[in-house]
Amino acid sequence: MSAATVQAMAEQLTQLEAGMPVPYGGDKLAYVSEELAAAFEPGDQLVVVQSSGDLLHIPADAHRTATAALDAAFRAFGELGAVSDDQITAFYNEFGRRLANDAVFAQIAEANEQDVARAKARGRSTTRLVLSEKMRRDMTSGLRIWERAPSTRSAPMETVNHDGWTVDLMRAGLGVVGFIFEGRPNVFADATGVLRSGNAVVFRIGSDALETARAIVEHALDPAVAAAGLPAGVVSLVDSRSRAAGWALFSDSRLALAVARGSGSAVAQLGAVARQAGIPVSLHGTGGAWIVAGEGADPEKFAAAVENSLDRKVCNTLNTCCIVEGRADELVPVFLDAVDRAGRALGTVSKLHVTRYAEHLIPAEWFEKVEISRAEGNVLEPRTEPIAEHRLGHEWEWEGSPEVTLTVVPDQETAARLFNEQSPRFGASLISESGDEQEAFWATVDSPFVGNGFTRWIDGQYALGRPELGLSNWQAGRLFARGGVLSGDSVYTVRTKVTQTDPNLRR
User: How many domains does the chain divide into?
Assistant: First the structure.
């Protein structure tokens, strides 16, 4: 690379050369590919992920689209101080009313059907994409929760009294929340909860669900914002199919919080981009809950927990099951029956992965080839396949056929250790009637969500009665000063207000 090129890059990056070294991580180099060099044009941006060396190309149009949505949200946030709590309540009421209106929802459903059809044609998963009636009810009920919720804007937290003056600690809006999520249209309703705590929000949704998102904005969200008299842009959509628009969004240091939901590697990358920009993050990119059957496991409760944790593929679906060795002969058949029932309930057969510690307990017919329901269609493959123990934490992204891993462990302490070492440290359940076993499990398993039954309870609205913005695992460490459920009313900062009654105060 010539000195002139180096000088030009120091002023403004206008071009890339194939093979050009790019420093990252302090002592490492990434190299520009021929494809990247050819695609990069003046006005484009390059983000270098310092933790991985990924070179992220942000075309100028993707950057402009993200910036426009952010600009609108920041203008709106500046105007929120003049907005009454009653106006925010009216927004939730109108948004929910419009979603509940069959004529309005029919237009949204039509857009969603088109999204689903396009995704299926590309062999993409539609598990989280279909805007079902249940999802519609969840959206409207979530909005009703926020409608009834008390405002936390300027809510008092603590008062410190002094002679001649008083200090009040008050909640306040954090700012503009950036939100990136995959094909789950209901997140629109969930995440508008940040308005209740005085924040604005910018969304980007995966390309599979973009038409659905546009329809929600056009027919329900924007009309609700206008009807309530809220500032335009207080809830903004980054209207782009490009993943680069998400990188541009999370590169803007004006964001107060970056929230990402989706697949593991993509979310990890987004989190790295945001952290580089100095933005706090809330990430949930991997799920895959675990169930451990302990010495004190009740077979019927164990069977119910397994079956009821495999009704659909979401983050809190059962992914890995550990059965203690002393109960394996009895409980492995119970587990297989439950997994089989879960598959039949979905009109298909289940898929099993087993370690060498469990393989000898699986009947021969479970290793025969069957039709497994995949996103691309039914595929003939063995119903059961071996898996190495070091892959216990691999999350199965199944479509129609429930997919789960089974292993046998010497004791529950080993199960907890394997969970802590290999899982994304998301959710874990111990099936046991022993209080001592439950206490030991709670003390040793490193998870924000711990239970004694099915895993599908891990959900903000279902468990806590508040729509969630996202769930956070502990894969990247425990969170400071908050739980694993991020909800709209938990996004705030603290302001300090002083009232002086003695004019002669001095230090």
Answer: 3
